[in-house]
Amino acid sequence: xxxxxxxxxxxxxxxxxxxxxxxxxxxxxxxxxxxxxxxxxxxxxxxxxxxxxxxxxxxxxxxxxxxxxxxxxxxxxxxxxxxxxxxxxxxxxxxxxxxxxxxxxxxxxxxxxxxxxxxxxxxxxxxxxxxxxxxxxxxxxxxxxxxxxxxxxxxxxxxxxxxxxxxxxxxxxxxxxxxxxxxxxxxxxxxxxxxxxxxxxxxxxxxxxxxxxxxxxxxxxxxxxxxxxxxxxxxxxxxxxxxxxxxxxxxxxxxxxxxxxxxxxxxxxxxxxxxxxxxx
Amino acid sequence: xxxxxxxxxxxxxxxxxxxxxxxxxxxxxxxxxxxxxxxxxxxxxxxxxxxxxxxxxxxxxxxxxxxxxxxxxxxxxxxxxxxxxxxxxxxxxxxxxxxxxxxxxxxxxxxxxxxxxxxxxxxxxxxxxxxxxxxxxxxxxxxxxxxxxxxxxxxxxxxxxxxxxxxxxxxxxxxxxxxxxxxxxxxxxxxxxxxxxxxxxxxxxxxxxxxxxxxxxxxxxxxxxxxxxxxxxxxxxxxxxxxxxxxxxxxxxxxxxxxxxxxxxxxxxxxxxxxxxxxxxxxxxxxxxxxxxxxxxxxxxxxxxxxxxxxxx
Lengths: 280, 313
What we know:
The complex is a heterodimer of chains A (280) and B (313). Chain A is an all-alpha fold. Chain A folds into two domains: 3-49; 66-279, MetI-like (MetI-like fold, Orthogonal Bundle), CATH 1.10.3720.10. Chain A has helices spanning 3-36, 40-43, 58-64, 67-100, 106-116, 121-135, 141-165, 170-177, 182-193, 195-211, 214-219, 228-238, 244-264, 266-279. In chain A, helix 1 packs across helix 13, helix 7 runs antiparallel to helix 10 and helix 12 (228-238) runs antiparallel to helix 13 (244-264). The longest helix of chain A has 34 residues, at 3-36. Chain A starts with a helix and ends with a helix. Chain B has one domain (83-306): Orthogonal Bundle (MetI-like fold). Helices cover 71% and strands 0% of the residues of chain B. Chain B contains 15 helices and no strands. Classes of the chains: A mainly alpha (280), B mainly alpha (313).
């Protein structure tokens, strides 16, 4: 067998394995979609109705017409966005300093910031729960947002630092010669240049905040303040076999925004992640 | 490299800037202050407080607090602890090994496909990555619908159609752990894949050419070039996903709730239950300290494996 025909055979194997892998990753989501489109009767027919005979959008209608559910979605969006914006505001100056200043403890400080990433939010929530109770911050979006910011800070600093590293210094140096202050340079030159990096970091952090469960689950008690991640968990606890199709629809609605955000900005996000990964 | 800012800065600025202002601006630590404050308030202080609380009898019920080592004694005497640690170990080891093998396999496959200009490789990468953005809670609920023994459980209903005995995916203690690992691998593999994919792209192609000249076959190229070149990436990735898995909580609470019995009650879930179900703040703090210690040992390992190249950058 020539090496070219052997390669062709390997190509075939590559396709085969790729299809199996794709199936493993897609089937759970397709099953979710399948259940969400079924009527209650068809849910009990299991896999034989993978493609529902009488597909219905009724489950989505039921979910999306419920004002409480829309409120959960809104809370999720609000907390994720506020957490993302807050995180960038705090992280950007630090990332600038790590990229543009040369000081002794720079790399050890960067490592210690990364070390915080290793601490489980659960560990810090054990004592924070009590402080927040004393400060009256329990059951409010402000306290939750602040913890979101803190939790995503280490990653944001690292991502933004590598974005700022990627833009040339010459413009900043020109501005410096023109007498622009440090902060002026940061505000008027560095930040606009690094806008794509800020955008991808923002989306990435928003996706992670959207998944946050522990923090809002512990700190929020009022139903109207809960974000979607906590709401579907509570809903799953109260639902039974005959409402599985509604739970599937709710899950899908909770999952789709994250998937869409990711697909729209996939190139940027993967770029940001791999840049970080290569640097270790 | 940088122009001497002190000499030039502010000379032609529109408004006169005081020298104090400039000194603040030129000090890197003033730029780091916001991060330092937030991490201090929300991480450092709580960590110290966890250490302190571990030596008290604190409870979320309130009541008078005094210092004691009772909680440590209680933890060591706790008959459930070995089981919890073993469960945590099995779940973590299974997830980490599974995610890395699978992630490496997919990364190698995608690289090969891209080299041969096959169709659909970006699509494959995207499909794997989609699972990664699924919230942990939804991950648990989705897999519950797949593993369920009710008629709508996907896997069992397929088995029934093929006239095979259904499996108690979530109610048999031994199998429930496997189910939990599978669902965690589903969601976590993407991270390893992307790390390995980036590392593979970074390998110098001339190494492979040289090996081909020497007559190395595909396996030998993988074994003697790819794997050694990826050593750092694999080490770093191991530690990152080990710690992420140790802290996994939402995907388990929504899949099995720690059950059946205690079969999937990992350390983070046990800590949560101790503090927020039993309201035992001191006992939970001791467990938190244990979690911190495990993470710390791993983090130190992580740092010691990092190449020292930052210094002359």
